[in-house]
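I hope you will forgive my troubling you with a question about protein structure. Here, with my thanks, is the record as I have it:
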Amino acid sequence: MWIVAVLMTLFLGGAQVPEEIRTLRPSVVADELVVSWMLDGNTFYSLHSRPAGGSMELQARTVPSSEPLWTRLFDADGTVPQLRMAGPYLALIYGSQTVLLDASTGKARWRDDDYSAAMAAGDEVLLWTPEGRAGLLDPVTAKIRWRQEVAAAPIGVTTTEQHVQVLYDDGTAVAYGRAGGEVVNTVAELPVREQDTDAYGGVIDDGLPTLVAAGDLAIVFGPGQIAALRLPTLERLWTAPVPRPVGVSRCGNRVCVLHAGGMTALDQSTGAPLWSGTDWTTWNGTLAGGPGGRIARVDPDTGRILADRGRGQLAGTMVIRAGSDRTAVFDQFSGALRAIVPYALLRCDGTGDQIACQGPGGSVMVWRIPKT
């Protein structure tokens, strides 16, 4: 009977239901309270608070075996670090400080007192010192590939095959040659938010985007506008007013900007607004999501709703719909029901054919989702 209820209340869109709906068991379980977590390929990272001494514990487990890879204790100075991948490194970012760990062992891989900040730059790492030096670290050799004297602190970085693009807190963006660090182009007077800094001049990451690659564009986020630069060498294209922009993604041939008033689609060539939707706060693949969990397939050219997909969470290529004690997982493209998870879940992130979800009590579980 519960399967029927799932189909009636959760499944929308008319796709075919598999003959056997799999009820899954988690491949990784973090039972204790998880304050931050990340699923990257076949590795699950989780941060746990340790009251004694105010330290935190970082755990790494393999997926789907759940075998522990390593555990590391560290002092985060009362903050919850962000977890990001930087090439083969795992970056822990808290305040203006960044620690680079070997993702396979948990050992610290970068300890150079000359550089007080590090930022992921594709498969490499951009380093910076308040004395005005920037460098590109090759994580394979653990050597600095090149150095440049700079006049401001970096707040954003993107990379392309042969270039590294860096945005500085004085509103300047520079395209460097990736191999040798030569300056290819400099763009000044870009809109940037005022950044908080620590006692050493390092920029404190507030979690909001500053520079984001969207297709062949680099988008600079200002306090009330965005600017578009052409990748890879940052030719200035346009500036558009946007109220408190917080995210951007490509939606069809448009640039969809998430902001305080919802979402606006811009012409990628001119920055002209094409349509706005106050109901949408996310765009994922082919679907738009709203703050109340509403999901719909939206025409990126017009903003017209093509199909209402009910309510749920967008997680990678999947749509998650929670019931009172179970959760259904759907394919966002076909609408097919892929699996049933025997738990009520609060928040999920997806990567490939896996999802990691946080449930009541702060525990996190990881599932491999079968292909349809």
About this structure: Confidence is low (pLDDT under 50) at residues 1-20. The chain is about 0% helix and 50% strand. Residues 132 and 207 are 24 Å apart (CA to CA).
